[in-house]
């Protein structure tokens, strides 16, 4: 691993030692790890002008307003703009090789039409002849602390925790399916082994994949994959890999989503499927009747893709940040960018498969009731709106995804594969399936009230995400102007307030982000609660998801906070002062 700074001395000065002892005494375990890995190097890597600027900034207000140029000095230093939950990859700017699993990063991300951009063109600093500043070395020092912690500490409870999550995830899917389809929507509690055997027998009969479900699922994935590769769209570059090359991400999600909607409409509208396919019943009704088998097909796909990526990554020597534990590495992933040509499996699964299938699952519930001439609960239409908005949002914001943490740092392992191919579409639809047999008989006023809350939360969620991502891209000089729907007001910020940091990545403290550090997570939890409330209060099961999702969000929040404390050091304390609330302004 390269040295974090060429100016670092082998024997620290008294001032460095004092800073190191101060950092080690910090109450945060993450800060202690950062201090032990980075030592006092951060005090020697800044240029004098930078040090004076930082000192003056700290003595005055922790927040400053700055004009965001089209391409700022961050592009020259190779440090991307991030908010608290989207961090720089360990090794940013260091040029560390794949042995440590870190990724070097350049600056500006131009549009390209090739599969890769060579290292010689990957850095705006190199291409424009700009000199990198000492901030890069500071970032490298902090990144070294991140790497040190990540290679000495497991996440998710280590191998035992990961194995438990994999087992429990399968159990949850089949348990919820059984409760919905065989137990009247009630939580199921067997009282004997005979009950367990009977339930297992019912599940096997209802969820064993058939040739038809396998054909449908494969056809759906293949069609969406072809759309992802051949439909016109924006070809955007991600962060540089460990060689300085950049992968191309084709962002044509909106067109793919609209074509998928056309297909769903044809399958739903009786004159269309009768005329085009001479079918007596809607394909969506067949889909609903075979949802259990479709779920098992998706489970096979999620597990199979994860296994294939793990084996291929090991065989092709394309592994990143391996620990030596087969279980843990399979769970977290071995390969960083599994792809065939332009089709990046991670990008594809997170944006297309999970949310499109969720929407199809919900629409199939409406089709099932319509085919039996039964009234459709208004709250089921509310879920169609909710899931449609979410799928549309992933498509219209697709161009913001390539430079994010998930793309440039998270490996594609079982966790991402299983939940995107199977978990999200077949667990998150539980309220939709519940409403097929349970009408809460809400008044129109109640449904309208729930819809208003949903749309208000969506507005905050959508514009908050847009503010953060647009700020990042604007600072890097890579803003892409697109027409998308809905095009909401206050989606961008002019001359936003930020906290400058020693790492070179300013922290946004303006717009929605001045009120709470994770305000978008609060909206996600609100969505989950609305989905549960749409089912009434007859059973607990519809509220299982909001509890499950909230626990997952809190765990992700903890991961984010640990990484941010390591990355930003003292600047993180200033950020916490400026934005003291995590989820709900004034409360929590």
Automatic annotation (TrEMBL):
Cellular compartments annotated: Endoplasmic reticulum membrane
Membrane topology qualifier: Multi-pass membrane protein
Keyword RNA-binding attributed: no
Pathway: Steroid metabolism; ergosterol biosynthesis
Region listing for Disordered, in residue ranges: 1-133
Feature: compositional bias, Low complexity: 1-15, 31-55
Catalyses which reaction(s): ergosterol + NADP(+) = ergosta-5,7,22,24(28)-tetraen-3beta-ol + NADPH + H(+)
Protein name: Delta(24(24(1)))-sterol reductase
Species this protein is from: Capsaspora owczarzaki (strain ATCC 30864)
Lineage per the UniProt record: Eukaryota, Filasterea, Capsaspora
